[in-house]
Amino acid sequence: MKICNVMTRDPKLAHPDETLQEAARTMRDFDCGILPVADGDRLVGMITDRDIAIRCLAEGKGPDTRVRDAMTPEVKYCYEDENTEQVAHNMAEIQVRRLPVLSRDKRLVGIISVGDLAREDLAECGGEALHGIVRRSSLHNQSRVAA
User: What is the DSSP letter of 53?
Assistant: First the structure.
């Protein structure tokens, strides 16, 4: 099956110059934890609720901080005509729960999530991605207890 058949279309966007408060409000209003960041018709980054908490609030930055100061500028993505199995495998490899979906002319057309894969009766694909995402990472280990 192709990604275009299971992706969420017309994702809400953030602009690099909007504030974190505005981005967080959009996330709340549309019940999402991630926003593609676009400048005109160019995808320039992604911002997540975790980016807001970890990169900004934890560092003492306030709600008027610009999205560009919290977003991830290196965007991983997939194409709408790719097979779900390959995308699920890639999501597992790079340990992400969501990817922006681009057309072949590099226009943002949607978002694919592990949940989208699972909802469309693609449990095997979603399961593969989820298994890869949740594998233990050497960079993030919560099993250690602080002394």
Answer: I
92: tokens are 């597992």
87-97, pLDDT tens digit by residue? 999 998 998 98
Domains delineated in the chain = 3-133 (3.10.580.10)
Q: How much is the mean pLDDT over the chain? A: 84
| pLDDT in the model for residue 136 | 47
Radius of gyration of the chain (CA): 16
pLDDT at 119: 73
- What b/e string do you get for 2-13 counting C-beta neighbours within 10 Å, with b at 16 or more? ebbebbeeebee
Alpha carbon distance 92, 86 (integer Å): 10
Rounded CA-CA distance 36/111 in Å is 9
Q: What is the pTM of this model?
A: 0.76
**Token digits of residue 75:** 């965007």
Instruction: Select from 129, 119, 38, 128 the least CA-distant residue to 75.
Output: 38
